[in-house]
Write a structure and sequence with these properties.
Layout: H1 12-18, E1 21-23, H2 29-52, H3 70-81, E2 89-97, E3 117-124, E4 130-134, H4 147-152, H5 160-163, E5 170-172, E6 179-182, E7 188-192, E8 198-205, H6 218-231, H7 234-239, E9 241-244, E10 248-255, E11 262-268, E12 274-275, H8 278-286, H9 293-300, H10 306-319, E13 322-325
Antiparallel strand pairs: 1-6, 2-8, 3-6, 3-8, 4-5, 4-7, 9-13, 10-11, 11-12
Helix pairs in contact: 8-10, 9-10
The chain binds fe (ii) ion.
Fe (ii) ion is lined by residues 109, 111, 184, 189.
Length: 345
């Protein structure tokens, strides 16, 4: 089953020029029907859940059907938005159902950092509902792995309800089966009169960031990294490329109340932070780009030597802050149908 019905090359220029595309009837009828059916099943089961477990958070993760080719999805999005097909990562796949009481005019938001491209698939859209984008104003990137993280860091005058007053908006009148793509982490946006609207949102980037772990290759890459570290095969390990793990969230320096003595921490998204050394911080902030473990260890080694630096990097791999890739350069290797990650499988 194909997901998209259009030729991506027809929309690449518009995306680059306008900062969004609205592709009417961009979904195949088969895929649209399958999502409608999926959403119906989910809604029914969640209604039951609400009676069964009080306060349970509504699950909105969309399970990719077996009969779609994830390679098609990666290819179309990369082609329209100009992302690197070799490193493209699906950082979110959520069904979003707006309640009947949803605010008709909510505040705008930016999507989390990994939403380099947000793809909205319109599944059931009330006549009066609109997607509103602000492609011309305040396009700074949300650097946080949540949408709320950005809001917490804004000064009052920077909040969208103030900063966007009088800003030029693009109001999209989308219908069932439409596809909308825009740079979600840099574009303020909202859904107006959203009550009862049903959307499938897919988010993508080409820099290997997947804090929620929703790309089909994120978990296999993590498991492969652990297997490699546990193998103890030093020769093989030395040739691998350490990169910040897909779920790594932040690396922080925090002043403590003990005379403001500073501590270093790394945090995998959604988990407790853990302490790191100066050498480990240097590894996290400078790894990637195809450099091998052996070379990275030599470059950042301190007085305790290269073997010690290497051990410290491998500890980060065990803790989930670093992934080890079996390719020379993450930016230079393309593989068919796997998001370029077959080397790690
Ligand atoms: Fe959004």
């Amino acid at each position: 089953m194909r997901v998209f019905s259009f030729d991506p090359s027809d929309y690449r220029d518009a995306y680059a020029r306008d900062g969004y595309v609205h592709i009417c009837a961009g979904l195949t009828p088969e895929f649209l029907a399958s999502v409608v059916e999926y959403a119906g099943r989910e809604l029914a089961s969640h209604k039951l859940d609400r009676f069964a477990i009080k306060g349970k958070k509504e699950q909105s993760l969309y399970e990719l059907p077996d009969d779609i080719d994830i390679g098609e999805v990666y290819e179309v999005v990369a082609a329209v938005a100009g992302l690197d097909r070799a490193t493209i990562t699906m950082s979110e796949r959520h069904i979003q159902i707006y309640e009947a009481t949803a605010a008709p005019e909510p505040a705008a938001h930016k999507d989390r950092y990994p939403s380099q491209v947000s793809v909205g698939l319109s599944i059931r859209i009330p006549d009066e509902s609109r997607l509103v984008l602000y492609p011309y104003s305040h396009r700074e990137t949300n650097p946080f792995n949540t949408s709320a993280g950005l809001r917490r860091h804004l000064q009052p005058e920077q909040l969208p309800e103030n900063a966007l007053r009088g800003a030029r908006e693009v109001e999209l009148d989308d219908r069932e089966g439409d596809v909308i793509m825009f740079p979600g982490s840099t574009t303020w946006h909202l859904r107006r009169r959203a009550a009862d609207a049903l959307n499938l949102y897919l988010k993508f980037n080409d820099f290997g960031c997947d804090p929620l772990g929703e790309d089909p290759f994120t978990q296999p890459i993590r498991e492969r990294t652990l297997t490699l570290v546990e193998s103890g095969d030093d020769e093989k390990l030395d040739g691998l490329s350490p990169v910040p793990s897909r779920r790594l969230d932040t690396v922080s320096r925090t002043a403590t109340r003990d005379g403001w003595r500073e501590v270093l921490e790394a945090r995998v998204f959604g988990e407790e932070p853990f302490g790191i050394t100066e050498i480990q911080q240097a590894a996290l902030l400078s790894c990637g780009g195809g450099e091998s473990l052996a070379s990275l260890a030599r470059r950042i080694a301190g007085p305790a030597g290269v073997a010690d630096a290497r051990r410290q990097i491998l500890r980060l791999a065990s803790q989930g802050a670093i992934d080890l890739l079996e390719w020379a350069s993450p930016m230079a290797t393309a593989s068919e149908g796997t998001g370029g990650l077959s080397a790690a499988m």
